[in-house]
Amino acid sequence: MKAIVVSEFGGPEVLQVAECKLGAPGEGEVLIQVKAVGVNPVETYIRAGTYPRLPDLPYTPGGNVAGTVEACGPGVTALKVGDRIYSAATKTGAYAEKSICKVVDVFSLPDNLSFAQGTALGVPAATAWRGLFTRGEGKKGDRVLIHGASGSVGQAAVQLGLGAGLEVYGTAGSSEGCALVEKLGADAFDHNMAGYDREMLEATSGEGFDLILEMLANKNLEMDLDLLAPGGRVVIIGSRGRIEMDPRATMGKETDIRGLALFNATTQELIDTHVALAKAMEKGILSPTISHEFTMEDAPAAHDLVMKDGNGGKIVLVP
């Protein structure tokens, strides 16, 4: 089979297509015929060798596939050959024509979602859910601000937040991005416009936000603390550098800064998350947008694009 193999950490050019062999699935595992692969920012950090947890070399990147079950290993009864699925993680990597996954990391893909949309569930939608409700403790009526709301995590957070009765606001970096956020049902603000933070605060009648999902903490965190309501929370989903700030900014309103990494979720938390996502899909609340599709050979271009603003949805590789 064809797969991307990374033999050394570095730039996008280390993503090389190679012919690989894949064995049969083991106990509690399934072999997936991959139809689409999700590209996530975290995979660029791992590829570059800058992430806290790194795989042994060589490796095949990625954890999000969508496709059909080709074979079931011993002890697998919840799935059968031909089932449409998406994965929250893989055992052998996602950037490949086939992938082996633990059955506990595989979930049913509804018929009303495409395989490409399925790749937006395992990391982006699960991250959005964890940020809103597990780490963020969001509840009906809370005012939530989602920075980078036009991206794949942001869009899922807008949809899930609105579906749960939260009052949702979002930022994007262009008029097109803001239009997309507004189409989803949230109030939108262009984060490249001077004074947009004051406009957002005014939109809450000066009361601030109960919860902020932050995709670029090194740029926005200090401002976020000013925008929080008393007892509010910032959940950091992404950051691309260091920041210097005064910790006293958290004291006056007794606000919280909370980190998020999906790999810290317990097995039960992941199960609960994907049960909730399934309900949201069934109700039509959650419907991911696909912005770009690349071939496996164009994976380096996909890694370049996923780190740029204005993608407007999920970036996908098609084997």
Distance between the termini: 10 Å
Helix/strand class: alpha/beta
Number of helical segments with 4 or more residues: 9
Q: Total number of β-strand segments? A: 15
Specify the biggest β-sheet: 7 strands, mixed
Entry summary:
The protein is α/β, with parallel strands linked by helices and 319 residues long. It is built from nine helices and 15 strands. It has helices at 41-48, 115-118, 121-135, 152-163, 175-184, 196-203, 217-227, 267-282, 299-306, and strands at residues 2-5, 16-19, 29-39, 65-72, 84-87, 98-102, 106-108, 143-146, 167-172, 187-190, 209-214, 228-236, 256-259, 290-295, 314-318.
Describe the structure.
The relative contact order is 0.16. It is globular and about 60 Å long. It contains nine helices and 15 strands. The strands form three sheets. Strands 3, 4, 5, 6, 7, 14 and 15 form a seven-stranded mixed β-sheet that branches. The chain is α/β, with parallel strands linked by helices and 319 residues long.
List the helices and strands and how they pair.
Layout: E1 2-5, E2 16-19, E3 29-39, H1 41-48, E4 65-72, E5 84-87, E6 98-102, E7 106-108, H2 115-118, H3 121-135, E8 143-146, H4 152-163, E9 167-172, H5 175-184, E10 187-190, H6 196-203, E11 209-214, H7 217-227, E12 228-236, E13 256-259, H8 267-282, E14 290-295, H9 299-306, E15 314-318
Parallel strand pairs: 8-9, 8-11, 9-10, 11-12, 12-13, 14-15
Antiparallel strand pairs: 1-2, 3-4, 3-6, 3-15, 4-5, 5-7
Helix pairs in contact: 3-4, 3-8
